[in-house]
């Protein structure tokens, strides 16, 4: 282990750099189906990178497996298309070892709440600093229409031809109860709102979670029409007098019937895993002053031999 895995990392100051262009960060032709909601999330991510003028080499995009998780392929920068459901574990390591970066993780409802459900809960409770955007289409898209943990009761799919029998999970309630310190909800049909949420999430010092409704036009068309005014639905914001630090109030908002509310439901300050772990490392380094991380590690191994 080198010392670079602890605290000190070179930081790039974007101050005197030319603003990053969309052309620079656009990679490959997205292979999503025409009309897929994921296009909107990608274009807002490009916008955010440009708006923040994030140095090209500091753009880090992590994802699991699924249509939505193909995301890093379409961003010309550092990115990882990781194991199904394990994106958050990779992203956590990255976040903890590179405090100079803001790690963005993207994925789908299956990736996040089925196979990755355990990682979701633990990353939230540990409050690892990163932004996690779940592109929720309420179905497994890549594998062509199986029931996902967010599919509504009665949804007919290849795994539930008779209609889904199992009560869906509510991502917002799950995130709040697991300990996420920033919990927001948005939709691909409102790019301005989506950008606002991603912007706010990036400013949050902790685990920021965004559920973004993102329609799978191929296997669940019309799923979110009730939230889209252009399709006769309603887009209702979180009430202005909502107290962001009130967990019970956030839970009540998350309990509203579909289409529910959009905006930040919950936001609190709690020490991040990053800060706590950095403190432990610093204390150890003080104790073993002058020794490298590998010397300290070796000394520990020698002790337990
Ligand atoms: C370990 C493992 N199990 C199962 C699969 C098959 N698989 C690939 S993507 C996927 C689900 C994708 O659904 P979701 O995360 O909602 O993403 P979407 O395609 O809807 O964007 C599954 C079950 C896999 N690739 N790896
Ligand atoms: S199958 Fe669905 S989620 Fe996958 S690219 Fe097509 S529309 Fe998007
Ligand atoms: Mg899905």
**Radius of gyration from the CA trace?**
20 Å
In what range is the share of β-strand residues?
5-15%
- Give the terminus-to-terminus CA distance: 19 Å
Question: Total number of β-strand segments?
Answer: 8
Strand order of the largest sheet: 2-1-3-4-6-5-8-7
**SSE succession:** HHEEHEHHEHEHEEHEHH
Number of separate domains: 2
Describe the biggest sheet? 8 strands, mixed
CATH fold label of the largest domain: Rossmann fold
Global morphology: globular
Keywords summarizing the entry:
305 residues; alpha/beta; Rossmann fold; 2 domains; eight-stranded mixed beta sheet; 14% strand; disordered N terminus; binds thiamine diphosphate; binds iron/sulfur cluster; binds magnesium ion
How would you sum up this structure in a few lines?
The protein has 305 residues and is of the alpha/beta class.
């Amino acid at each position: 282990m080198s010392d670079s895995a602890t605290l000190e990392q070179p930081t790039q100051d974007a101050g005197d750099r030319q603003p990053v262009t969309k052309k620079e960060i656009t990679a490959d032709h997205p292979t999503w189906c025409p009309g897929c909601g994921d296009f909107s999330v990608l274009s807002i991510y490009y916008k955010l990178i440009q708006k923040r003028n994030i140095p090209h080499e500091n753009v880090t995009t992590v994802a699991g497996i699924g249509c939505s998780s193909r995301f890093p392929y379409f961003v010309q920068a550092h990115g990882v298309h990781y194991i199904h459901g394990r994106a958050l574990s990779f992203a956590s390591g990255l976040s903890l070892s590179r405090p100079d970066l803001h790690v963005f993780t993207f994925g789908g409802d299956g990736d996040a709440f089925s196979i990755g459900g355990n990682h979701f809960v633990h990353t939230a409770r540990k409050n690892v600093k990163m932004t996690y955007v779940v592109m929720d289409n309420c179905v497994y898209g890549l594998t062509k229409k199986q029931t996902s943990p967010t599919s509504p009761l009665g949804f007919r799919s290849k795994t539930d031809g008779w209609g889904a029998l199992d009560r869906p999970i509510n991502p917002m309630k799950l995130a709040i109860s697991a300990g996420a310190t920033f919990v927001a909800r948005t939709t691909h049909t409102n790019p301005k709102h989506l950008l606002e949420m991603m912007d706010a999430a990036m400013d949050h010092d902790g685990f920021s979670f965004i559920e973004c409704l993102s329609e799978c036009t191929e296997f669940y068309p019309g799923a979110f029409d009730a939230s889209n005014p252009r399709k006769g639905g309603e887009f209702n914001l979180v009430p202005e007098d909502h107290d962001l630090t009130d967990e019970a109030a956030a839970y009540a908002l998350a309990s509203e019937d579909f289409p529910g509310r959009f905006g930040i439901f919950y936001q609190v300050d709690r020490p991040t895993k990053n800060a706590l772990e950095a403190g432990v490392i610093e204390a150890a380094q003080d104790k073993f002053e002058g020794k490298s991380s590998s010397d300290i590690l070796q000394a520990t191994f020698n002790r337990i031999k």
